Amino acid sequence: MAGLLRVGLIGAGIQQSKSPLLHMEEARAQGLPLSYELIDLTARGLGPEALPDLLAEAEAQGFAGVNITHPCKQRVIPLLDDLSEDAAQLGAVNTVLFRDGRRIGHNTDWSGFAESFRRGLPDVAFDNVLLVGAGGAGVAVAHACLRLGVGRLWLHDADAARAEALEADLNARAGAALAVATPYLASAMAQVDGLINATPMGMEAHPGLPVDVDLLMPRHWVAEIVYFPLETALLRHAKSRGCRVLDGGGMAVFQAVAAFRLFTGREPDAGRMTAHFARMTGG
Ligand code: NAD
Questions:
Q1: What is the mean pLDDT of residues 80-99?
Q2: Nearest alpha carbon, ligand 1 atom 27
Q3: Is the dihedral of CA 88, 91, 94, 100 positive or negative?
Q4: What gap in Å lies between CA 18 and CA 256, rounded to an integer?
């Protein structure tokens, strides 16, 4: 079809992704013919080593760009011609644009979290923050915390080496001892203004809590990045203790808002995409 903008998502096990509907519904509302296609490694029986071929295939088919997810966000970097400054610093890409024979990598995960946080918890104290989970998403959230002007970022991960590696990377970038990896959740919680969960704890497949709820005080704010379900056990407990909370839906929506802008060159209606996401997730 003439004028059809093709975009997609490359990753493993992505059949439940909300991205196709989120992008296509916004495009439809703008009168823009757009198809968002899932390029699912799992469904095709492929491993991540197929990424170079899948990327080349999408480019050859005239895609405007693709989103990239697990397990390809780092792996895609050597396949690109250029990176945004933030993607280069973070070392992860979730959006690739194909432009004039060049492939340009961006990261809208960090900006998605930052935008959600600015809107959802605009006036909270941000001097001392605890980030639990230093995996792929945790690295993006840590970058967002830097950009949001965190004073000190405490990092905790069940895999201590991951928290330590992120600490070293953030401090090298900040040129200061801004990040502190810690195995001690209780003493960190006693010192921080708020807590961000970037572990999978709270998902249906990973029930449980990233911190003991007895450590939550009403003065803490609590931000989630898990968004399925939108109300995790952590958020439920936090609310019942009087904490201000932010669910993970905003990060998911605002990473898509920024990717839509990059893919189409048009300004998406963030309110409309938020409302659509809420309808899809029953939020
Ligand atoms: P990952 O596997 O790369 O990293 C998870 C990290 O959490 C690992 O380092 C692991 O050691 C650590 N961890 C697990 N359980 C822990 C615990 N109990 N205490 C401390 N550390 C623990 O996963 P990821 O890609 O970073 O994703 C994490 C979660 O973020 C997933 O649930 C995913 O759905 C969610 N996510 C949400 C968004 C969004 O837009 N809202 C975006 C990306 C990821």
A1: 97
A2: 137
A3: positive
A4: 10
pLDDT digits (tens, 9 = 90+) for 210-260: 999 999 999 999 999 999 899 999 999 999 999 999 999 999 999 999 999
pLDDT at 1: 47
In the set 23, 73, 162, 276, the catalytic residue is 73
Residues at CB less than 6 angstroms from ligand 1: 70, 109, 112, 132-138, 156-159, 162, 198-201, 203, 210, 225-227, 248, 251-252, 255
Domains, the chain, with CATH or none: 5-107+252-281 (3.40.50.10860), 110-247 (3.40.50.720)
- In whole angstroms, what is the distance from residue 41 CA to residue 186 CA? 40
Atom number in ligand 1 closest to CA 199 = 7
Mean pLDDT value of segment 15-22 = 96
- Between the CA of 208 and the centroid of ligand 1 the distance, in Å, is 13
Which tens digit of pLDDT belongs to each residue from 231-242? 999 999 999 999
Helix (H, G, I), strand (E, B) or coil at 72: coil
The pLDDT value given to residue 159: 97
**Cα–Cα distance between 193 and 118 in angstroms, integer?**
16
Percent of the chain with pLDDT strictly greater than 90:
96
86 three-class SS: helix
Res 281: pLDDT? 87
Q: Ligand 1 mean position to 157 CA, how many Å?
A: 10
Between the alpha carbon of residue 274 and those of residues 22, 26, 198, 247, the distances in Å are 9, 10, 21, 13
